[in-house]
Amino acid sequence: QQKKDDQQKQDDQQKQDDQQKQDDQQKQDDQQKQDDQQKQDDQQKQDDQQKQDDQQRQDDQQKQDDQQKQDDQQKQDDQQKPSQQSPGNRDQDSKQQPVPTPTPGEKKEGEIKSMGEEGPEEAAAAMEAEEKDGEMSEGQARALLNSLRADEDRVPLMRSATQEQTFKDW
Fold first, then answer.
1. Which residues contact 131 (CB under 8 A, 6 or more apart)?
2. Strand, helix or coil at 110?
3. Quick check: 81 and 93 in contact, CB under 8 A?
4. Alpha carbon of 4 to those of 12, 19, 120, 131: distances in Å?
5. Cα 135 to Cα 160: distance, rounded to the nearest angstrom
6. H-state helical runs in 85-137
7. Exposure of 136 by Cβ count < 10 A (0-12 exposed, 13-18 middle, 19+ buried)?
8. CB count, 10 Å around CB of 125?
9. Is the model's pTM score more than 0.70?
């Protein structure tokens, strides 16, 4: 009976060991599969990124090539125009210059005023300026002060010497 019990214990222990080995092997296999899948995913990401980079380079190169072709065509057209025109037409084309187009960018701030239309104060200030050379009239002084009011916040006009720091570099 004792032998049977010992044999049964050994068999049970062997079964447990075998089961443990199988579990460990299954875990290792699962881990290996996960690692392999991760490597495949990483490789796929690298391949996709490489394809995107290559496509971007091709697109950029195509744009450059197209721009170069347009520039070359424009140069050829410009060179052919003067030779095809009669001398009388050259003067007319020199007067017709292309109108510059504004470049997109930051919006400008401020008011738009025409050169010929001045307000009554500015017109009076201009008249006084013509009267006295070398001196500023009262109207001109006021106009100057008014124009500088907006700059007070940006430019420290009344800064005292005590506020300035002295930096020593020894």
1. 137
2. coil
3. yes
4. 12, 22, 124, 134
5. 29
6. 87-95, 120-131
7. middle
8. 20
9. no
- Run of H or E residues at 170: none
Instruction: Give CA 48 to chain center in angstroms.
Output: 25
Give 137's DSSP letter: -
Helix axes 120-131, 138-148, angle to 10 degrees: 130
Q: Is 124 in contact with 139 (CB distance < 8 Å)? A: yes
Q: What is the DSSP letter of 151?
A: G
- The C-alpha atoms of residue 72 and residue 95 are separated, in whole angstroms, by 24
Q: Which two tokens stand for residue 167?
A: 């930096």
Give the integer Cα–Cα distance in Å for 12 and 4.
Answer: 12
pLDDT tens over the chain, length 170 residues? 778 888 888 899 999 999 999 999 999 999 999 999 999 999 999 999 999 999 999 999 999 999 999 998 888 888 877 655 555 554 444 556 666 666 666 666 767 766 555 555 666 656 655 556 778 888 888 888 888 876 766 666 565 555 667 777 77
In the block, tokens 């009669």 appear at 86
122 and 114 Cβ atoms separated by less than 8 Å: no
Tell me how far apart the alpha carbons of residues 144 and 122 are, in angstroms, rounded to a whole number. Answer: 11
